Amino acid sequence: MIDDKKQEAIGLRAMGTGFVAMDVVEGLEATFASAGGSCGNVMALLSWLGWDSFPVARLGCDEPGDFVVHDLQFDGVKTDFVWQEQSVSTPVVVQKFKVDAEGHRSHRYVLTCPDCGGWLPRFRSTTIRQIQPVLDSDCVPDIFFFDRVSPSALKLASWVRESGGLVLFEPSSIGDESQFQKAIDVCHVLKFAEDRLGHINEIRDLTGPNLIIQTLGPRGLEFRLGWDWFELDAFEAPYFLDAAGSGDWCTAILLSELGNQGSMNPVSWTPRLISDALRRGQAAAALNCGFEGARGAMQAADKDAFMLAVSDLMAGKETSVERLTEGKAEPRVNLCSLCKIVPFSTGKDAETA
Question: If you average pLDDT over residues 227-255, what whole number do you get?
C-alpha cells in the first residue's frame, strides 16, 4: 500500500470515519444544505480530486440521512459503508454568519434548533459489529482519516496501518485520554487546530506521529517533521465570504499530493515535500474562502480552473473567484423546522432525479 513509486490519483483509495453530518448554511442570498462534517468533507474532496473514497459512518433513517447519502453519492463518494438505522438520528449543524463593527465576516456553528431551541442530533460512532464487513472486505485503503476517537475508529486505523496504509488523525478534542493516546500511537500524521488543542503544550512534543501539523487560522500553520518545526504563512484570500472548511481543504490536498507523488511512506518525507503539499492545501483553502460553505468552491467551480487558480496563487499571480464559477445550482432546504429538514427537489436533486 505505502510505496514511493509515482502514482496517479486514479486507483488510489481513501477511507475515513468520524463526523459526517448535514450542514445547513444560512448564506447571504439563500439557505442551502450540503453533506459535511470533517470526515464527510475530506472524503468528498478526495473523491473530487480523483480518489475512490469510502466514509465509514452511522446515520439515521431520516430526511437528513437520505440527503447526506444522496449528496455524497452525487460527488462520487462510495457509500458502501454508510449505514442508516432507526435507532439514531443524523447529525445536523447550522452555520450562521456575523459581521463585526469593522465589516469582517465570520461564521459560527449552532447545534440547537433556531425554532424550538432543542438540541439537534449529535454524532454517533459506528460499532465494532458494524465495521466487521469493512475489515472482512478487500477494500484496504491507501490512506485512512479519522477525526473522532472510538473503539471502531481505532480498530479501523490499526487495520489500515497494519496493512501498510497511511493514517491521519485530526482531533477536535481529547476526550478519554487513554483512547486518545491509542489514536496518537496508531497515526502517522497528527493535525490539529490551535484554537481547539493549542492550549495543551504537551501535544507539540508527542512522540509517535511522523508529522505533526498545527493550524493557526489566519496566521498560517506550523509543522513538525522529525523534531524540527517549520512555519508557513497563510495566503490572503482573493475574495472572502466564508472560512469554513479551510482545514478540511488543507488535509485533503495534503493527502492527495502525497498520493499523487507516490510519497505515502513517511520515510520518504522531507521538509520541502511536506511544505509544498501543505502550501497547495493552504492556497486551495484561501480560494474556497470566496464561496459559502465548507466545500463551496468544489460545488460551484470547475475543478481544472480551480486547480490552475491554486497554482497561480502559489506563484503570486492574480486570480479571481468569478472566473472559477459555472453558475451551478445549490441544493436548498426548507427550514420549516430544523428538527426535520426536508430537501427540495432542486439543484443537485433535480440533476439526479
Answer: 96
pLDDT at 42 over 80: yes
- Compute the CA torsion angle 173, 176, 178, 181 (nearest 10 deg): -10
- For β-strands 221-225 and 92-99, DSSP reports them as unpaired
**Contact in structure between 232 and 275 (CB atoms under 8 Å):** yes
* Over residues 20-35, mean pLDDT: 92
Give the pLDDT confidence score for residue 253 in this predicted structure.
98
Is 68 strand, coil or helix? helix
Indicate the helix (H) or strand (E) that contains 105. strand 105-110
How many residues does this entry show for the chain?
A: 353
In this structure, what C-alpha cell is assigned to residue 137? 472486505
Q: Output the pLDDT for position 9.
A: 56
Pairing of strands 211-215, 221-225: antiparallel
Distance CA(151)–CA(180), nearest Å, equals: 11
- Phi then psi for residue 310, to 5 deg, are -60, -45
Cell of 223: 509543522
Residue 348: the pLDDT is 39
Q: How far is CA 59 from CA 66, 117, 331, 341, in A?
A: 9, 22, 20, 14
Q: Which CATH superfamily is domain 13-348 in?
A: Ribokinase (3.40.1190.20)
Question: With left for phi above 0 and alpha for psi between -120 and 50, is residue 271 left, alpha or beta?
Answer: alpha
Question: Residue 7 above 50 pLDDT?
Answer: no
pLDDT of 113 strictly over 90? no
Count Cα neighbours of 173 within 13 Å in the Cβ-side half-sphere. Answer: 4
Domain range summary for the chain, segments of one domain joined by +? 13-348
Q: What are phi and psi of 328, to 5 degrees?
A: -70, 145
> DSSP of 115-144, one letter per residue?
TT-PBPP---PPPHHHHHHHHHSS---SEE
